[in-house]
């Protein structure tokens, strides 16, 4: 409804002075009276009385609104914009997290749709928003593959990694020392944080820093298990040993757990897996039911599926246990990326 003027006609008539001429306001064309046109509200040439037109008469450039594709595809919404506004601002389709949600993968589809619609309908477009601290893509913050901005890196620079590992080696020369981090197996082998970890660890080992292994935490979302094999293989290829260190998976599907566990089984120097808790209620992600046991400590379907899968994959006579020399007595876990 474009405009509403509510009049209590009986009260107006009752208040009229005796003998006065009373006009029945129910039959007045209020738009004609107020806006100077005799067209009906739904039949008028809307551009003659639009807020954009009135505003421009004051020497302004436009009176606009915001929209995106979904609102422009809404016929009622689109008609109002056509009739009453002279400018459109993309509400979200021009923001960085929409245009480049993953690094170097650009999608201007929704923004192009808006610009084309505006051009077709004679509207100007206001660009929004090129640089803003909010609604930035997640990869810009902690997944770029560079060192994380932390108290360690701020005070000690990149050398904090060397200091940590050298100190750990001195404390226990026989310990296997791991660098352990999250989001290194969830997104695939080409994910920036995964490749960043690989590049840094290669450089550090070449510089004599005593890194024995890489730990991949593997706090997975549902359906990310399929990404683990390639990621883990790439990480394990550059160190003497590796492990999945904090596994939990949203909804704990059998397929996700099988893919994740099988990834380690298939890599010779993946020495072990740690599931991050026993039963769901005790998990740091309790609402996601990510573990292998339910609240009553009963095994969940993923547990049985893993047992069956591993039994088929690894008959006792065909696999040797991990040698005693790879037993972890201590781990230096240094999340850096």
TrEMBL record:
A GO molecular function held by the record: endo-1,4-beta-xylanase activity
Record carries keyword Nucleus: no
- What is the uppermost EC class here? hydrolase
Please name the Pfam families in this protein's record: Glyco_hydro_10
EC numbers for this chain: 3.2.1.8
Which residues constitute the signal peptide according to the record? 1-16
Query: Per the record's keyword annotation, is Methyltransferase included, yes or no?
Result: no
Domain GH10 positions = 66-309
Name the source's superkingdom: Eukaryota
Give the PROSITE patterns listed for this entry. Answer: GH10_2
Q: Which reaction does it catalyse?
A: Endohydrolysis of (1->4)-beta-D-xylosidic linkages in xylans
Q: Tell me which PANTHER family the record gives.
A: ENDO-1,4-BETA-XYLANASE C, GLYCOSYL HYDROLASE
Protein family according to the UniProt entry: Belongs to the glycosyl hydrolase 10 (cellulase F) family.
- Protein name in UniProt: Beta-xylanase
Species of provenance: Hymenoscyphus fraxineus
């Amino acid at each position: 409804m474009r405009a509403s003027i509510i009049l209590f006609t009986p009260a107006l008539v009752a208040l009229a002075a005796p003998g006065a001429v009373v006009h029945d306001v129910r039959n007045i064309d209020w738009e004609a009276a107020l806006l100077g046109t005799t067209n009906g509200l739904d039949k008028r040439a809307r551009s003659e009385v639009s807020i954009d037109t009135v505003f421009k008469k004051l020497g302004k450039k436009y009176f606009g609104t915001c929209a995106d594709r979904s609102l422009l595809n809404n016929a009622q919404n689109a008609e109002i914009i056509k009739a009453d506004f002279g400018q459109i601002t993309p509400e979200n389709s021009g923001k960085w997290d929409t245009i480049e949600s993953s690094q170097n993968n650009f999608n201007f589809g929704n923004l192009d749709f808006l610009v084309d619609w505006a051009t077709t309908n004679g509207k100007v477009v206001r660009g929004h928003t090129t640089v803003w601290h909010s609604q930035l893509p997640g990869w810009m913050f902690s997944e770029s593959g560079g060192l994380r901005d932390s108290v360690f890196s701020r005070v000690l620079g990149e050398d904090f990694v060397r200091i940590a590992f050298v100190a750990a080696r001195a404390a226990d020369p026989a310990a296997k020392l791991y660098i352990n981090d999250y989001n290194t197996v969830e997104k695939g082998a080409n994910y920036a944080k995964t490749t960043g970890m690989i590049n840094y660890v290669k450089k550090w080992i070449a510089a004599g820093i005593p890194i024995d292994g890489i730990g991949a935490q593997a706090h997975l979302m549902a359906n990310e298990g399929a990404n683990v094999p390639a990621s883990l293989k790439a990480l394990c290829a550059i160190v003497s040993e590796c492990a999945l260190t904090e596994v939990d998976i949203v909804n704990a599907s059998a397929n996700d757990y099988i893919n994740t566990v099988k990834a380690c089984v298939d890599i010779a120097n993946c020495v072990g897996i740690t599931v991050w808790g026993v039963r769901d209620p005790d998990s740091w992600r309790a609402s996601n039911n990510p573990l292998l046991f339910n609240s009553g400590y009963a095994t969940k379907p993923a547990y049985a599926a893993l047992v069956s899968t591993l039994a088929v994959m690894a008959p006792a006579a065909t696999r040797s246990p991990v040698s005693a020399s790879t037993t972890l007595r201590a781990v230096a876990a240094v999340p850096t990326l």
